[in-house]
Amino acid sequence: MGTGKPSGHAAPAGVFSFADVQVDAGAHRLTRAGTEVGLEPKAFAVLLELLAHPDQMLSRDQLLDAVWGHAHVTQATLNRLVVQLRRALRVPRQSTPLTDRHDVDLGPAHSPALPSLNAN
């Protein structure tokens, strides 16, 4: 269980580009095909946490601890934000199966179009 504070490691800095998506960490901006896509601040924080761990599967608890410090946040909140990220990144639902009630997969792990954005 977390301490109520986000973990101390820094979010990735810079601009990340893949497919037609650009993520500007410093400006807290996500664009797709040159059009800005609105994300809630916590959804953006989840995205940055995933970008900070390329080619890794992060558990829900890891994401909750990193972004919220696991304080007073339910997994349903994280699930809602993952859905928001899937929509923003246009990850097809059929390519993101739920392996069980505790796993969430944002997209194919080795897709050439998307970085490894997985949370389990």
UniProtKB/TrEMBL annotation:
Gene3D superfamilies: Winged helix-like DNA-binding domain superfamily/Winged helix DNA-binding domain. Keywords: DNA-binding. It comes from the Bacteria. InterPro entries: OmpR/PhoB-type_DNA-bd (IPR001867), Sig_transdc_resp-reg_C-effctor (IPR016032), WH-like_DNA-bd_sf (IPR036388). It comes from Rhodanobacter panaciterrae. Residues 92-120 are annotated as: Disordered. PROSITE patterns: OMPR_PHOB. Residues 13-120 bind DNA. This is OmpR/PhoB-type domain-containing protein. Transmembrane segments: none annotated. Pfam families: Trans_reg_C. Residues 13-120 form the OmpR/PhoB-type domain.
